Amino acid sequence: MELTIEQALGDQWAMFYHSQWPVEDLQPVCTLEQSVRTVNQQLQSVRDLSQWKYAHQDEIARLLWVNWMYQRLGAEPIRKPVLVHKHNEQLVVDCGDTRLMSLNLLPDPGTVSVMVVVPISQAGEYSDWRQIHTNRDLMRVTGFGRGADIALRVNDAGRIEWLEIGDHTTAHHLHDVDQRIAMMQRYVDTQEDTFEFSVDWARNHINWDIYAR
User: Fold this and answer.
1) N or C: which end of the chain has fewer CB within 10 A?
2) pLDDT less than 50: residues of the chain
């Protein structure tokens, strides 16, 4: 059963939205440096990505996405809000690390829209944020149309820990992980045996259409 935001929040949780939160004030779970290190360790021993564990395949697919997003930031600013939760007075990312990786490649990553989910008892701390009660509320503040799809997942405690939103305007955003893995395999196959990824690599202009056959 697919939950709506209203169903997932119930009477225990509250969701709030902020349209311009400083990127530097968000605590990611995974950084681009960590992702690059993980992928390079795997490449040193196995260049056939089909032999990698899924978690490692996901990391190399993420690198493609980071570069692809970075190249398009001028034309397509990040519209999807980053989902976070509060821990030790910090906003920790639940869903959106890849978007932050792309933004942090800029000289000034600026701000990004953010959603936080908190116990209803803490709702008073977010009086200057906009409260989100339903799927339609989220579509309205993010500018997605009524036909937008919202998918979410809750953790064992019942808190929303993953949420994605998109419509026809984001359908071309390479959401298929298997497609990105196949594209990365073709890319790696064109590189020297000593090739390694890096943070600077993610700023390169790469025509990924060439590898999407």
Assistant:
1) N
2) 171
